[in-house]
Amino acid sequence: MREISSPSLASRTTLRLGGTAIAELILDGPEDFTALPERLQTLGGTPLVLGAGSNILAQDGQLPLVLVRPNITTGPEIVGRAGDRILVRAGAAVPLPRLLRFCAQHGLTGLEGLAGIPGSVGGAVAMNAGSFGVQTCEKIEFIDVFTQGCINRITVAGLQFGYRTLSLSGKNQDFIVVEATFGLTESTRDGITNLMRHNFFEKKSRQPVTAWSAGCVFKNPAGGFTAGKLLDMAGFRGKKLGGMAFSEVHANFLINEGRGEAEAALTLLREARDAVLSRFGIGLEPEVRIVPCLSL
Ligand SMILES: Cc1cc2nc3c(=O)[nH]c(=O)nc-3n(C[C@H](O)[C@H](O)[C@H](O)COP(=O)(O)OP(=O)(O)OC[C@H]3O[C@@H](n4cnc5c(N)ncnc54)[C@H](O)[C@@H]3O)c2cc1C
Fold it and tell me: Whole-prediction pTM value?
């Protein structure tokens, strides 16, 4: 297991915010997972599994966190069939865009809706990332997870997933996604590539995809309006504070304009949440993971 002291959260997250953690533990193989519990116990602090850091708002200062990075880069590769589905395996650290490129090259359909999401396979599974009507976890055949000291294979029937959540059915326990195997069907390469391109350009036209952000900061509430529309109607589109701003392009994207600090980001999120609650009676919940965990 490789270990780095005082790793910066700002340089490991797409929002580029946050102070330093106690340590970062990089897990390169099964033996590193086995050694993890003991090392965590020695270091103290709260473990935070980190993928590509594209859904994280890290607080400022010295943080009582130990970053755990499952650096499993196997695949993507075809590993078999199940009925009409082709099984594609990818390690937790494989970038989602690389998995999508593989699918397009091999004529495998199912994940096109995820085009433009900048996460890792592990993060996409853990968050049940979704877009254009596709949810990552719907396409899972099974995942290998490290939980309670060992790596277990869990089929989709053993998973509970919903809007940006995943848990192991009936178990309230932490887990690290090590690898995921997806069941995809065959289609034409051109059709898949065109749909991915279309989805990507749609995203690019409606979201500030190149700015420093963590994607949508609030979940869309049940009912008619999206969080972006509610924030817009509450006057938060373009609202700025201390180097942070709600995007002019998409009001549910909080942007770090270059010198932002987490304290300003959290203040903006609280103000926005309170304004939407008092004007529309709707309680917005963060989609972005605030670390260390904090309720707004
Ligand atoms: C420009 C932009 C656009 C985005 N668009 C979308 C979108 O359309 N749809 C969408 O759903 N999201 C979107 N996101 C948010 C983000 O990309 C997704 O949530 C993504 O799946 C997070 O993956 P990650 O590897 O970056 O995870 P991280 O941000 O590193 O972690 C996110 C959470 O997953 C956990 N986690 C990460 N890896 C693992 C693992 N191996 N095992 C267990 N837990 C793990 C972390 O502990 C944390 O709680 C967008 C973000 C940006 C910046």
Answer: 0.96
